[in-house]
């Protein structure tokens, strides 16, 4: 599952720091988690972690955490139906989480300057947008909603939640995406019963980015130490 790597002090930016299932985190990824704009890899790791540690406890749930790379491809492709084979089968899916990036250059890896979160409630026909620098990613999220509508074969109402928690600097957007994703997944969707009407607004919810960064780093370090123990 996770493989131990050389000590952090001897790593170059591209060297692997942790391999966790399908995600390979580098020293550069780890450094951005400390005080910078999160890479695609950091967000992909968090999604993989939520799937392996939280979603696995609910085998009857049909929730998809789409990776940043797939959400980006979805935004850029002229015809979203051409991606159908590369995407999960959404026929039984109730909710889809998509990290939204404002990059428009398909030639530039790890591009863009802002992350936001789109949560598509397939069963309700609504796409909720959580932007910590509202309305920065309004157009991008609205476009992805239209693309998802084509893929799902049903109309989706786009709702930009202007009361979402707002960041206080220019680099915490990815952390806000990760923390809000977990809260909405674990505290709202997975904890609800079939009869519950789930509140999707994040109004009144505080996101402490510094604490979120520390928690994500702690999770990564825990898996790294686990890998080292298994190897010793």
Poorly predicted residue ranges: none
What class do helices, strands and sheet pairing give? alpha/beta
Portion of residues in helices? 25-40%
| Mean pLDDT rating | 92
The ordered string of helix (H) and strand (E) elements is EEEHHEHEEEHEHH
What does this structure look like?
- This protein has helices at 27-35, 40-53, 68-76, 138-152, 173-189, 209-231, and strands at 2-3, 16-20, 23-26, 63-65, 95-101, 115-121, 126-130, 157-160.
- 38% of the residues lie in helices and 16% in strands.
- With 232 residues, it is of the alpha/beta class.
- Strands 4-5-6-7-8 form a five-stranded mixed β-sheet, sandwiched between helices. Strands 1-2-3 form a three-stranded antiparallel β-sheet.
Which key terms come to mind for this protein?
three-stranded antiparallel β-sheet; five-stranded mixed β-sheet; single chain; alpha/beta; globular
Please outline what is shown here.
The chain has 232 residues and is of the alpha/beta class. 38% of the residues lie in helices and 16% in strands.
Topology of helices and strands:
Blueprint: E1 2-3, E2 16-20, E3 23-26, H1 27-35, H2 40-53, E4 63-65, H3 68-76, E5 95-101, E6 115-121, E7 126-130, H4 138-152, E8 157-160, H5 173-189, H6 209-231
Parallel strand pairs: 4-5, 7-8
Antiparallel strand pairs: 1-2, 2-3, 5-6, 6-7
């Amino acid at each position: 599952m996770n493989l131990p790597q050389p000590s952090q002090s001897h790593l170059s930016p591209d060297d692997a720091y942790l391999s966790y299932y399908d995600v390979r985190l580098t020293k550069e990824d780890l450094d951005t988690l400390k005080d910078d704009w999160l890479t695609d890899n950091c967000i992909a790791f968090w999604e993989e972690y939520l799937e392996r540690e939280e979603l696995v406890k609910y085998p009857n749930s049909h929730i998809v955490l789409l990776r940043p790379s797939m959400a980006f491809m979805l935004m850029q492709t002229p015809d979203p139906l051409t991606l159908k084979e590369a995407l999960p089968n959404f026929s039984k899916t109730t909710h889809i989480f998509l990290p939204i990036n404002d990059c428009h250059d398909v030639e530039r890896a790890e591009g863009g300057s802002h992350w936001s979160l789109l949560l598509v409630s397939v069963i309700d026909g609504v796409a909720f947008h959580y932007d910590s620098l509202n309305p920065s990613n309004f157009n991008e999220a609205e476009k992805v909603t239209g693309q998802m509508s084509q893929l799902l074969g049903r109309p989706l109402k786009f709702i930009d939640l202007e009361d979402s928690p707002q960041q206080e600097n220019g680099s915490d957007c990815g952390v806000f995406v990760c923390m809000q994703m977990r809260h909405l997944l674990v505290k709202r969707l997975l904890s609800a019963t079939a009869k519950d009407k789930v509140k999707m607004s994040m109004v009144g919810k505080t996101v402490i980015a510094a604490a979120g960064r520390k928690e994500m780093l702690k999770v990564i370090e825990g898996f790294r130490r686990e890998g080292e123990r298994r190897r010793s």
